């Protein structure tokens, strides 16, 4: 009851007219920056951080709540419409979301994303309010061995489950891991794969790789496809900006499964929302493959609903981990931690005692921000879809410019622009050769975590490798990984057997 009383007090502060205005401003600004290719939600928070210094702490963090969640919707908007996610957490939404847009269902795709974001984020906010003590206990049970097992599980699942060819998936993963280790080794201080170039001592940014692989590569691919394939037709958004009863029935189970997958990852430092979005997408793809008529690849609504719910559930829970544990589990949460420290506030268990009014007002603002985003984005889904009507030369030229501006804004280095171009060309070749991009991104995101975790685990055990498989959580993760591999192998064997039977029947019919 004390929590409910505190939360009601927080709602009383948030629903004050001035604070409601700050929530609205934050939602609009976050969405506006999030839809710009190369920027994204974390950049929205970083760019708008100085703007809030003139505000008192409560107003500043209420506005940040709107920016935080609004930026996530902006990421998904560009992922769906332009196949250009603002953040790596929106990558999984590109696969079926952009396919829906290409088939003329962009408004329905945006509505699916908006509802999924609301369900995932709202559920996470409820859990954060009532289960903060359990979050602390759950997160504290993870050590280096658990993090390594989790990263290994992500590597295996993304390379085998998300790729049509396991070989291509593993090769893409290896490329991502190779890019991740470029730079100065954090333990020994030795340069790795830098070719003695000081420009590579800091490594290659994930933002640069994401923008190059998904945005710039897409621009080059579309330009070449339309130049050499005259049958390609432009995307024409049409239809309603809401979901039919059948679409709601189709998406509802995926929203629920995505939310369930995303919630635990909000308190685990495992790369933010990327892993749960890919895992939820992979699960929906496997479930779809068991249908008589699989829909993935043609714009399956479940392939968009699940990652959106998972990503926002993880984001909401990560804010709970930040407030209750002082643990930033994503880049955006780390920026939020810096914002707290600017005001002389240290998130953690003591924050609920020393700054209780601010904490409960901020938690209440999460609920208000979710409702505001749903209210402003569902009616505007059809308007956002009109972006597809911009002539392709202007549209993709603009995307290319924003890609370059976004990368230059993060590093102020012309070398990163050259790296961006090179990675864009590599991404284009991978698109042409039908290599999956998801394992590469996951390799970059979780490669450093896996390397650091295995080092820490071995150093703490004096080099004893059995420390990597010690503990019930570790064994559970490895058991799930083996089950995923077995499921994938069985599915592939059945697909091959079915294809052979179909060919044999066709040959027999031809002989007759």
From TrEMBL:
Residues passing through the membrane, by range: 20-39, 45-73, 110-135, 147-163, 170-191, 203-224, 321-340, 360-382, 394-411, 417-433, 440-461, 473-493
Superkingdom assignment: Bacteria
Keywords in alphabetical order: Membrane, Transmembrane, Transmembrane helix
Presence of the UniProt keyword Cell inner membrane in the record: no
Alphabetical list of Pfam families matching this protein: TctA (PF01970)
Keyword Zinc-finger appears in the UniProt entry: no
Residue span, DUF112 domain: 20-442
Annotated protein name in UniProt: Tripartite tricarboxylate transporter permease
Species, as recorded: Brachybacterium hainanense
